[in-house]
Amino acid sequence: MPRPGDFICRDIIDAPVFAIRQKDKSIKAFSNVCLHRSACLLSGDGHVSRISCPYHSWTYELDGRLIGAPFMQETAGFETKNYSLNELACEVWEGFIYVALGSKPTSIAGQLTDLTSLIGDFRIADYVPVFAEEETWDTNWKCLVENFMDVYHLHRVHRKFVQQSTDRPKSRRQSVPGWRCISPITTFRMRKGQDRCRRTRKIRGCKVRTGCGPG
Fold it and tell me: Would you say residue 132 has pLDDT above 80?
């Protein structure tokens, strides 16, 4: 998301959210819901100069302020300056965008201090996407998740990877209460209410920007 107006949309449980680059290069996150009739404002990943609702054309600035509401000037007492999208807690750590639905979550950087020192040399914050592809798997999602959690098969199925990783420090996934990462390299989605469902995996190939960061 290098340019002001670049955005990504994700769902945190059942809550649609989006993160968007601001004009001052910061990133803000909002509920992906129009204030008027709760229509979804944005979808997927992309770029906008302003956020416009596809239902009634309510329009918002990148910082969430309502700046346009057709015909609402005929409503007594209505002023666009009194309305803004619901802003969510948002923090960027090592290039990953974290969003929290809670109002005052503990800072994520402080909770991941040990992990920062472990992965800092990989310069993940300097990665830029070079390709994206999408796969759909017709599978039982529980088996898929269990396979990703299982490490016992690595020595056989992913032997080369294990050999290349033996000299690296061991780490474990750290739980960060209240926060959800919405910008991983690989994401999974599933349909609700189905044991067997189609799973879509989005893969982003990345490379490190040259001329930035340490080294």
Answer: no
Q: What is the pLDDT of residue 30?
A: 98
Q: Is 25 left (phi over 0), alpha (psi -120 to 50) or beta?
A: left
User: What pLDDT does 192 receive?
Assistant: 52
Is the model's pLDDT at 165 over the cut of 80?
A: no
Q: What is the mean pLDDT of residues 52-65?
A: 97
Answer whether 94's CB lies under 8 Å from 108's CB.
no
Are both 12 and 62 inside the same structural domain?
Answer: yes
Amino acid occupying residue 148: F
Beta strands 87-93 and 96-100, pairing class = antiparallel
Res 210: pLDDT: 46
CB 169 within 8 A of CB 99: no
Q: What is the pLDDT of residue 160?
A: 81
Cα R_g (the chain), whole angstroms? 20
* Strands (E) located in the chain: 6-12, 15-21, 27-31, 45-47, 51-52, 59-60, 66-68, 87-93, 96-100, 127-140, 180-181, 186-189, 196-208
Domain count, the chain: 2
Contacts of 139 (CB under 8 A, 6+ apart): 196, 197, 199
Q: Which domain holds residue 62?
A: 6-85
| Domain identity same for 202 and 122 | yes
